[in-house]
Specification:
Number of domains: 2
CATH topology of the largest domain: Aspartate Aminotransferase, domain 2
Number of strands: 12
Oligomer: single chain
Shape: globular
Strand order of the largest sheet: 1-9-8-7-4-2-3
Length: about 350
Amino acid sequence: MHDDVRAAMASPDQCHREPEAAALMSRVREKAARICGGDERHTSVLLAGSGTAALEAAFSSIVPADGRILILDNGHYADRLCRIVSVHQIPHVRMEFGWTQPISVEAVDRALADDPSITHVGLVHHETSTGMLNPLREIGAVVARHGRSLAVDAISSLGSERLDLVADHIDWCVGTANKCLEGLPGVSFVAGPRERFAELETVPAHTFYLDLYGHFNAQDREKAPLFTPALQVMTAFEKALDRAIDEGVTARGERYTALAERIRTGLADRGVRFLLPPEHRANSVTNVHVPGGLTYEELHDGLKAEGFVVYSTQQQLAGVFRVANMGQLTEGDITEFLAAFDRVVAKHAGETE
C-alpha cells in the first residue's frame, strides 16, 4: 500500500460515538459509492469485517420472503455465495458453468425468461479462483431487461475494472477496503441506490450483526454506527479512496494492465502455462500452472525466501498459483520477481539432476 495509507493507521484514538467519527463515516460512505459510479441517488453502508462480511450482509438481507436469487457459478467465490444463501435458508437457484468457463449471457437470459420466481441475480465480477473476469455489463443489461435485481461481488475488481452502478444496472455492489482499492482489510461495504436500501425495511432480518437494513438505518438516518466500527482502518480507507478517486478507475486499470502484461510476458517467455486465455483474464491477477519439476510448496517457499509471496488456488485447481499485481507495485518489482522466479526454478532443477 501507499505510505500515506499506512500512515493513516496511526491516526489518534477516536471514540466512535463522537461527531468526528460520524463525519468520517459519512465521508467514507459517500466516497465508496462514488468509486462505484454512484451519484446523489446512491449511498453505501460500511461494515467492520472483511469482504465476506459485506457479502453475507448483502446476500442474507436483500431477498424478500417471496423472492428467490439466481447464483451464477463459475468458480470458488460464486460457490461461496451459494453457501451464504444456503446457511441463511434464502431460496435460490444455482446455475453452474464450470470452473474456467465463461458465463453464458444467453443462458442467463433464458433462465430469467423461464422462471418468473427469480427476483435477484448474484454475480462474482472477478472470480479470482481462476482469474476470470465475468461479463458484468452484458449480464446487467439482461437482468434489467427482465426487471430483476442484480447483486455483484466486486471485491476483487472494484477500483481497477470497468464497473458503474448506473450503466451496469447494479442494485447491490459489494466491495472491500483492500484489493484494488489499496487499503487494509477490516472494512467492507455495500453500495447501491438509496431507494433499494430503504425498501429493505420490510424484508425480515436473517442475522443480527450483519442486518444490512439495520446498518443503513443507523448510518444514514441516525448518523451513527450500529456497532463499533474499525475507525483506524476506516481512516486509512478514506486515504486509499482519495487516492483511487484522484487516479481514476480507468487510469488505475491501465496501470494494473501494464504490470499484468509484464508478468504474463515474462512467464510466457519462460514456458509457463496459463490457466485462462487472454480474453478472459482480469487486469490484477494472473493464474498459472506450477512449472514442471516443482511442487507449489517449493515454489512458494522459494519465492517467499526471495521476498515475494504467491498464492495457491483452491483444491479444485491443484498445481495452479496466482500472481497479483494490485497495489503500489512497480515495473522494477516485476523484474525482480521474474529474476527470483528464475533462481527458484534453477535451484530445484539443479537438485533433481
